[in-house]
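ugh ok fine here u go
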Amino acid sequence: MAGAGARGDAADGGLDRYRSPLVSRYSSPEMAFNFSELKKFTTWRRLWLYLARAQRMLGLPITEEQLQEMESNLNNIDFKMAAEEEKKLRHDVMAHVHTFAHCCPNAAAIIHLGATSCYVGDNTDLIVLRDGFDILLPKLARVISRLMDFAQQHADLPTLGFTHYQPAQLTTVGKRCCLWLQDLCMDLRNIERGRSELRFRGVKGTTGTQASFLQLFEGDHGKVEELDRLVTEMAGFKQTYMVTGQTYSRKVDIDSLAVLSSLGATIHKICTDIRLLANLKEIEEPFEKDQIGSSAMPYKRNPMRSERCCSLARHLMALVLDPLHTAAVQWFERTLDDSANRRICLPESFLTADIILSTLQNITEGLVVYPKVIERHIRQELPFMATENIIMAMVKAGENRQDCHERIRVLSQQAAAVVKQEGGDNDLISRIREDPYFSPIHGQLQALLNPKSFIGCAPQQVTRFLEQEVQPMLVPYASQLEVKVELLL
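structure:
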């Protein structure tokens, strides 16, 4: 069960201090853990173990007993001691080196051997980014799967199309859904690419030259390269960034957050459409039996989940500005003005993407369509849209096109006046039925006004798009598509 919502405020304490609602109110447990202190610092220790293990494999005097001691204490973190050490040393990595060494006295001398702080800091960030993408991808695939089912179900249900938010030619509910799906499929490809292109910083030293490791291996360049390769492989990556400064290029953060920002734009557009359709009473998001839409207006069914998605999506779209500015001001091999910023923008981007995907999955699993309302709206506009078909039918019956056009124009303006000035229904077809001039086609009017004759190739486009583009993209996620999501808020 993938869950999201409020969890245990009173039991957890901390009500006298600010806590990010991305964690306390919204996030899924798996994404909250991915950016947790526990995940971060156990990963640091695991990276120190990888480094020592690879160094032993390449001939440095490190014993198996030292490695076993490190491995048995990966999760044995004294956070109180680490906090005290950091307060004293003003250096988070060295505080945790000392804390790890305290519970690994035999291995103390070889922990962090030859490394700089970014060996654990940057490599852990890359692991967390990779794991964050792995959490998001199946969630996005589930949203696509739900909307694919919705599009199939309503592939040939005519509805008013809108351009400039003004009634335009008819489309279908399923075809409009495919517009949403196409953008989400782009996002899936972008995130898959972002995930696959992530590399490991690896073992590069203080300015990226690997000088300390070259000294450890007495000038053996081959062993330095093999150390980099071994640690990269242990961490589950296929490639490293061949050149780095002290840090991996902060362009990587831009690329990672850009694909999430783009996802935010997609979801904002989808949920805005749903909100507009809810106003038209054509489509509604799920509404619970005891849910209250307004404290003052009991009849209201506000699209609150779509509104939440839009609200959070705006935050997600804005967050990509942080790594853009950070990358632009990384002087030479690095400056430390990236650190505090990245502690905020990286986790917030993934946490925000996580909750809007969970919320959108919940919405798409319970979208309600009101065909009769859609039909009524079509009836209000279709007579005007059908005028060209009526003219063509009259020409086929032997009438002059220009004469017919003028008669239709006059009747259309009269009908428009009834709608706009009197607030009445569109009575153009009644006027045509009452005009003897149009008697040659009176018997064809019902067929000429069949909404399905105005939707073009929309149903066929839906079928072809879903079969050829959407379904193949979901194949890698087949085992994860049936997972449900529960929103507590």
